[in-house]
Each structure stands twice: as C-alpha cells, then as structure tokens.
Amino acid sequence: MSEDNACWQPACAIADLEQGQFSEFRLPRKTQEPDTLPQTGFVFLDNGKPRAYLNQCPHLGIELNWMPGRFLDADNLFIQCSTHGALFKPGTGECIAGPCQGDALTALEVRVTNGMILVRAPE
Ligand code: FES
Q: What is the pTM of this model?
C-alpha cells in the first residue's frame, strides 16, 4: 500500500447511503493520549455527492449529535449542533447561526473507490 493510500480510510459503502441519511465513522488519531476519545466523522450525500466532516462543533469542539445518525435540524435543511443549536450549511460546513457563526465544520477529503466511500483527515 502506498503512502497516499495509507491516509485514506473507509467510511461506508456508497450503496448503503441514501439521500438524507448520515453514517458515522472513527478516525485514527496521529497521537493517541490515554484519555482522549477517538476522533469521529460523518458522511452523507449532498445532492448525490458524498461529503464528510469531522464530528466536532467549532464552538466547544464536542460532537454535534446526541442521537446516532441524527445531524439535521427539524426542517432537514441544516446540520445542527445538539448542544447549543448552531446551524451549518451541509454543502460547505459554514455556520450560519449560533455561537460559532462564521466558523465552519472541518471538511474531510472524500473519494469513492470500488463502491466504498473513503475519507482522509486534514493534515
Ligand atoms: S457546542 Fe455546538 S453550538 Fe455550542
């Protein structure tokens, strides 16, 4: 496996993901301190195109969702942080309302290989 391939990790099969559905995954940390939780992310289809972000609110750095796979607001328009209600545009991750307005979710690189959605964390 080349160095480039080693950076990519599978998130889920693209066939298992329907529009409006979110799939969560864990990312290995480069340095794993004993008390740190694994870093997590989520992937979904944005107009049929897979898109992935770290599951980390820019406000306090905690996970966005309380319920597995539940990331959208009541109108299913924006990604919403469960803690203080910040709203993020699904296509860009930009926060448009809430305590971290103007900040953004951290996007992950995404590619599809052999039917699997692969993600790569930012360096
Ligand atoms: S922790 Fe997400 S809005 Fe405060």
A: 0.90
The answer on pLDDT for 2 being more than 70 is: no
Mean per-residue pLDDT, 30-36: 63
Interstrand relation of 116-120 and 9-13 (parallel, antiparallel or unpaired): antiparallel
Angle at alpha carbon of residue 68, lines to 65 and 69, rounded to 5°? 85
Domain count, the chain: 1
Whether the CB of 98 sits within 6 Å of ligand 1: yes
The CATH code of the domain that includes 109 is: 2.102.10.10
pLDDT tier at 88 (50, 70, 90 boundaries)?
very high
The residues, ordered by sequence, that sit 6+ positions from 20 with a Cβ below 8 Å of its Cβ are 44, 45, 72, 76
Q: Is the CB of 83 under 6 A from ligand 1?
A: yes
